[in-house]
Amino acid sequence: PQNFPLIQCPPNPPIYLLFFTLGPRSVDAFKEVDQDADKVLTRTEVKEHLKLSYEKGGKVHDDLYYEKILDDIFYKSDRDKDGMISAKEYNIYEHDEL
Ligand SMILES: [Ca+2]
Ligand SMILES: [Ca+2]
């Protein structure tokens, strides 16, 4: 299926913004975070990516900082509360709300 909506992203958006916002979400961002390509994002995967994004920008934070962001991300995105964000929950494949 190649009928994903074309999404315009600003260059190098902080990844957590893509999770936070209920705006357009990008397949590329999802794939980038989903390191084992099993189509779900675990807390570990999201955390690793968060860390990388921040450290790339020259900012290092302690674990607690990332955990708080993760809590927020999962609170907003993990609708069935199984501790993982599926592609559907990430809203790539369908937009069933807003
Ligand atoms: Ca995964
Ligand atoms: Ca879930």
From TrEMBL:
Keywords for the protein's UniProt record, in alphabetical order: Calcium, Isomerase, Metal-binding, Repeat, Rotamase, Signal
Tagged with keyword Repeat: yes
Keyword Isomerase: yes
Domain of life: Eukaryota
GO MF assignments: calcium ion binding; peptidyl-prolyl cis-trans isomerase activity
Catalytic activity: [protein]-peptidylproline (omega=180) = [protein]-peptidylproline (omega=0)
All residue ranges annotated as the EF-hand domain in the record: 28-56, 65-98
Its EC number(s): 5.2.1.8
Class of enzymatic activity (EC top level): isomerase
Protein name in the entry: peptidylprolyl isomerase
